[in-house]
Specification:
It comes from Amycolatopsis tucumanensis. The protein folds into two domains: about 120 residues, Beta Polymerase, domain 2 (2-Layer Sandwich), CATH 3.30.460; about 110 residues. About 50% of the residues lie in helices and about 10% in strands. Helix 3 links the parallel strand 2 and strand 3. The protein has a four-stranded mixed sheet with strand order 3-2-1-4. By secondary structure, it is an alpha+beta fold. The protein has eleven helices and four strands.
């Protein structure tokens, strides 16, 4: 049976109480997932993942789930399996090939998941000062431990600040040219895939734009769009469309153009004006 962890908070030494803004009693962001929240439909998928990972990656430090499955909101046949593997050393091409093989094997075996995504990083990078408010926050608050020693034990407690907003989503402007280039040559199935990733990023960026003003955290896309709309009502319908597209990807070029050429550039400019430039990465 896969390891079980009780719900916990970002960092250590907290009460388990979490308010409706995703915060602990001391105002820090609570870890949003737990293995106990995984539904019966997805439990076999997670167990198979654990077996594959443990038998493949000899240099594994720890493995984590994130997304709707550990949050307990996954929909069979619709939701994907999102995984982070922290290795003792920097990932190699062989590691990436192993990850792709596991993705394919799980996707073929389990119809209840709509794809598998395995991210690779070194534990050293995730704990570095440069990643403290990006990769570190991701592990400590958005990831659920599955195997190994939890890196969150070595990370700080996080609050919904402008610094956190800037370092997690302050690079939107750098992504837009690549999205435009892909959209120009994409076929229908490629546009659907692109629309989903673009829409997810825009909704999350829209939410973190207003996160310090709202004073909390959520990963729920629909709620993120509505919270964004409290502060930017003139853009609410576009953000609702983005949230819908993130859940139900579309090949409609008009929607993709709206996301990439209208909402995206405006959001990138407003983000920089509000939270400043993201610190450069090595």
């Amino acid at each position: 049976m896969y390891l079980r962890h009780a719900p916990r908070l970002c960092g250590t030494g907290h009460s388990d109480r979490v308010d409706d803004r995703g915060l602990a009693a001391d105002g820090t962001i609570a870890r949003e997932g737990s293995l106990e929240r995984i539904s019966a439909e997805f439990a076999p998928v997670v167990e198979a993942l654990r077996v594959h990972v443990a038998g493949t990656f000899a240099r594994l430090h720890s493995a984590y789930l994130y997304g709707s499955i550990p949050r307990g909101t996954a929909v069979p046949g619709v939701s994907d399996l999102d995984v982070l593997l922290a290795l003792h050393d920097e990932p190699t091409d062989a590691d990436r090939a192993d990850a792709r093989r596991i993705e394919g094997a799980l996707d073929r075996e389990f119809p209840q998941i709509n794809g598998v995504g395995i991210q690779l990083a070194s534990a050293r990078t995730l704990l570095s000062d440069a990643e403290r408010h990006d990769g570190g926050f991701f592990v400590a608050c958005l990831c659920t431990p599955l195997l190994g020693d939890d890196l969150a034990e070595h990370l700080p407690r996080y609050r919904p600040t402008s610094l956190l907003a800037r370092e997690t989503n302050g690079d939107l402007g750098t992504l837009l040219p690549g999205w435009r280039e892909r959209a120009q040559t994409a076929r229908d199935h490629e546009r659907r895939t692109l629309s989903r990733s673009v829409a997810r990023r825009l909704v999350r960026t829209g939410f973190t734009l207003v996160m310090p003003r709202w004073g909390g955290w959520t990963s729920d896309l629909a709620r993120s769009a509505e919270l964004f709309g409290r502060y930017y009502p003139e853009r609410l319908e576009q953000m609702r469309t983005a949230a819908q597209t993130a859940r139900e990807p579309t090949a409609d070029p008009a929607i993709l153009a709206m996301l990439i050429d209208d909402l995206g550039p405006w959001l990138a400019a407003e983000y920089t004006a509000t939270h400043g430039e993201r610190a450069p990465r090595p």
